[in-house]
């Protein structure tokens, strides 16, 4: 139950930040990606992976907003997930174009071997 609460709290904070920074509309789609790296992923490798993820908005026009950070929650409920990435799209159609995009697929090849866990949740704002 605590994990579910922490997850919803994170998404709520991510949406709040995205709204202020990216001028989201009610129909925008938020794509949240959480990574737990394998122990053998060196800090240099993680930095390389983050740089590759940061490059995606310049390669994929459908990405409307992008931000990322490392976990700093004092609650200790992250279950080893250390890196959070929040992308916004105008709608599901744009997200659906992003998923099979060659640049996204190439990024998957870069990050895949180094991930122990990945969590992805997409949502459209339902807050009143």
TrEMBL record:
Residues 29-123 form the Stress-response A/B barrel domain. SUPFAM superfamilies: Dimeric alpha+beta barrel (SSF54909). This is Dabb family protein. Homodimer. Residues 1-20 form the signal peptide. It comes from Larkinella knui. The keyword Signal applies. Coiled coil: none annotated. InterPro entries: Dabb, Dimeric_a/b-barrel, HS1/DABB1-like. The keyword Signal applies. Keywords: Signal.
